[in-house]
């Protein structure tokens, strides 16, 4: 991966050191944020359709955002945990090609980092509940994010440094598959950013081409060369991704989500959603939403 292509920033949501029991048992959780665990005692399991990973002392674990995972604690488990929200200028996740549960051996410094993170950010734990049904709602996530604004500049910068050091532990090529280096032309990159911030509007190839000062045919060809998709197909994919996020983190109705993501009708939204995900919106929300 080209280090100059690194565009992700991370916001702290939650961090704590907790002792869990048999009640820590949740199935098929899909979160809009990253989960990072450092186990100090006990054992448990993280699993999904493709993996079954043992939670054990002395290891560090990462579950990237929108990665399905079930959590099991048969007896007792003591762990440090960290929940972080990712943002990127081009809306591409750092782990877009690595949506899987990742386990790496812990270093002594990892424990030091977690302890320091808790010193800098006290009372950032899930005091009310460990159940994702309670804390994954969008207003709750926003409330946790706002706590970052109360940090001093030095504490904020140090917190960011610790988060990046912990994330870096999972970027070794033994665990992480880098994306091929692809330098996107400035005009296409600007178009991608415009699309991401205007999904709720009526986007057309002609409009995007005009902003790039190119003909529609030429713009469409260059766009596909750099993204793998024609502009309209790319827009629809990003609208569906945004809809998936809103289904998980908000109480908006499907009609409201369709409007918010730029679809002209609920019927058209439902048809496109099923085409991309293989499920109708109502079924997807029922199976994956944890609110």
Describe this protein's structure:
The chain has 291 residues and is α+β, with helices and mostly antiparallel strands. The protein has helices at residues 108-120, 132-135, 138-146, 153-168, 186-197, 205-211, 216-227, 231-249, 254-260, 266-277, 281-288, and strands spanning 8-20, 25-29, 34-47, 52-56, 59-63, 69-72, 77-88, 102-105. The protein has two domains: 3-168, Sandwich (Jelly Rolls); 186-288, Orthogonal Bundle (Arc Repressor Mutant, subunit A), CATH 1.10.10. 41% of the residues lie in helices and 21% in strands. Strand 3 and strand 4 (52-56) form a beta hairpin. Helix 1 packs antiparallel against helix 4 and helix 6 (205-211) crosses helix 7 (216-227). GO terms for molecular function: DNA-binding transcription factor activity; sequence-specific DNA binding. Keywords: DNA-binding, Transcription, Transcription regulation. This is Transcriptional regulator, AraC family.
Rg on CA atoms, Å: 20 Å
Largest sheet, strands/sense/barrel: 8 strands, antiparallel
Q: Choose one word for the global shape.
A: globular
* Overall mean confidence score, pLDDT: 85
Counting DSSP H or I runs of 4 or more residues, the number of helices is 11
Q: Kindly, what is the distance between the CA atoms of the first and last residues, rounded to a whole number of angstroms?
A: 36 Å
- Write down the secondary-structure element order: EEEEEEEEHHHHHHHHHHH
Question: What is the fold-level CATH name, i.e. the topology of the largest domain?
Answer: Jelly Rolls
Considering DSSP H and I runs of 4 or more, what fraction of the residues is helical?
Answer: 40-55%
Let me know the number of strands: 8
Low-confidence stretches: none
CATH architectural category of the largest domain: Sandwich
CATH superfamily descriptor of the largest domain: Jelly Rolls
Number of domains: 2
The computed structural class is: alpha+beta
* CATH class category of the largest domain: Mainly Beta
- In what range is the share of β-strand residues? 15-25%
GO molecular function, one term: DNA-binding transcription factor activity
Organism: Runella slithyformis (strain ATCC 29530 / DSM 19594 / LMG 11500 / NCIMB 11436 / LSU 4)
Protein name: Transcriptional regulator, AraC family
Domain HTH araC/xylS-type: 189-287
């Amino acid at each position: 991966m080209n280090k100059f292509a690194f565009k992700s920033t991370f916001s702290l949501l939650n961090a704590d050191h907790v002792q869990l029991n048999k009640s820590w048992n949740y199935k098929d959780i899909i979160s809009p944020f990253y989960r990072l665990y450092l186990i100090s005692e006990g054992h448990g399991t993280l699993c999904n359709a493709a993996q079954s990973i043992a939670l054990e002392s002395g290891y560090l674990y990462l579950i990237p955002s929108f990665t399905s995972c079930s959590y099991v604690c048969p007896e007792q488990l003591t762990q440090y945990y960290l929940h972080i929200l990712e943002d990127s200028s081009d809306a591409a996740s750092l782990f877009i090609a690595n949506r899987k549960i990742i386990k790496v051996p812990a270093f002594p410094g990892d424990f030091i980092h977690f302890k320091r993170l808790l010193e800098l950010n006290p009372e950032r734990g899930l005091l009310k509940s460990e159940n994702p049904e309670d804390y994954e709602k969008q207003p709750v996530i926003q409330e946790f994010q706002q706590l970052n604004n109360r940090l001093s500049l030095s504490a904020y910068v140090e917190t960011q440094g610790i988060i990046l050091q912990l994330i870096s532990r999972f970027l070794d090529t033994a665990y992480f598959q880098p994306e091929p280096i692809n330098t996107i032309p400035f005009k296409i990159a600007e178009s991608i950013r415009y699309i991401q911030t205007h999904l709720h509007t009526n986007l057309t190839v002609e409009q995007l081409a005009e902003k790039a000062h190119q003909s529609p045919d030429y713009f469409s060809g260059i766009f596909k060369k750099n993204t793998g998709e024609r502009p309209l197909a790319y827009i629809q994919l990003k609208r569906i991704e945004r809809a998936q996020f809103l289904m998980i983190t908000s109480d908006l109705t499907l009609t409201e989500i369709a409007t918010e993501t730029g679809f002209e009708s609920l019927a058209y939204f439902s048809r496109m959603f099923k085409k991309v995900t293989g499920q109708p919106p109502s079924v997807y929300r029922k199976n994956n939403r944890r609110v």
